[in-house]
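Why do we bother with holo predictions? Because pocket geometry can differ from the apo form. Keep that in mind while you read this record for alpha-D-glucopyranuronic acid.
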Amino acid sequence: MRICNVLKGICGLLWITGLVCPVSAQFAMPSQAVRDSIKKANQDDYQNMLNQLHITSIRTHVTNYDEAKANPYPNLPDPLTLKNGKKVTTPKMWWDQRRPEIVEDFDREVYGRVPANTPKVKWVIKNTIKNTLDGKEYITKELEGQVDNSSYPAVSVNIQLTLTTPATAKGPVPVIMEFGFMFPGMSTFPVAGAPGAEKSWQQQVLEKGWGYAIIIPNSIQGDSGDGLHRGIIGMMNKGQYRKPDDWGVLRAWGWGASRALDYFETDPAVDAKKVGLEGHSRYGKATLVAVANDPRFAIAFVTSSGAGGAKLNRHDYGEVVENVAKADEYHWMAGNYIKYAGPLNWNDLPVDSHELIALCAPRPVFISVGGQGDRWADPVGMFLAQVGAGPVYKLLGKKDLGTDQFPAVETTLADGELGFRQHPGGHTNGPNWPMFLTFAERYFK
Ligand code: GCU
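The structure, written out:
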């Protein structure tokens, strides 16, 4: 049983990195020739983007883990100053003037623009399964979001989503959706943990009387540069190369999550005004991008998102812009983002991640990170971004984090709309689920 789980884990990882086709070769490693050709196609896409940007090479960066040296650019762009220098003093000025400026900068320079004419998605329930857990009945729906590909039939996209809700609920329930590390073959319903073991996040959500959903990012958009010629990005580009301000994979995953939310709005089991989104690591980045861009998401649980996510681009600790701009990660971002790894610098970015969090305001955002084993994700860099978002929350009549001093491990900061917690473990969100759910309960009562 154990070995089987380990194998599934390895397979899942290969699938996430785009090396294994989930359907045809679930447990098989692709041949060297196939891996070489994927690598070459990746390199080709990356090189094409460098050429469009007139960049011959990007800077190399020596990873820093010394907090005393982590702050080369302490002055962040002010979320409450308009480009013309005027101060933003009212919520109306934020909504009408400043917020659109920030959205435009993120779209053009950081995550890329979602095309205006994205196709319709038809949601089909493929399976309805009854499950029982702790004596209670649940309904799991296995759904497929069939994307209309009439504009480019060479690419098809079918978004995989499962939704589990209590069978006996008196009305629609809140739902927490995860960008899942699921892959075909894994159970869509949580198996109860062994006695004394930590409960799965799904169990914890169900115990609140809510539902949970899992959306499979790779079914929206593959996780590689080569994959940009397929998936929803490839469909919109008709298989061609991206332009420097076209959407990257994080924005595409966020688009897919919004389409799932479209479906929830039609399902009477779901209270679509109380849908939260959660994701870990690269999916933590996607979670923040999705919630920032779709005001219908009620709450975000952003875990170990690091560079390209909640961490400040200007903070030199763990992963930095130079790492994300490399051939194995640039596809998450707009091509333009590469420029800030050379010739431009981090400080030339017109926006930073505190403003991405601010785009979620006034909605609650909980940022989670681990300890020593999660240094790559830059705990302090994410904390400082949340501090920097505070003034926008306050302008909108909400509470900020309440402190600008990095808290001791295992301190939950969650008195206001911005929640933060560093657990002592590694690169995982497990230990922070209970604190996030307590935080969410305030809004989902
Ligand atoms: C790498 C990458 C991170 C990312 C992580 C993941 O470590 O550098 O930015 O969050 O993979 O998603 O697993």
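The pocket of alpha-D-glucopyranuronic acid is lined by residues 281-282, 306-307, 319, 323, 376 (CB under 6 Å).
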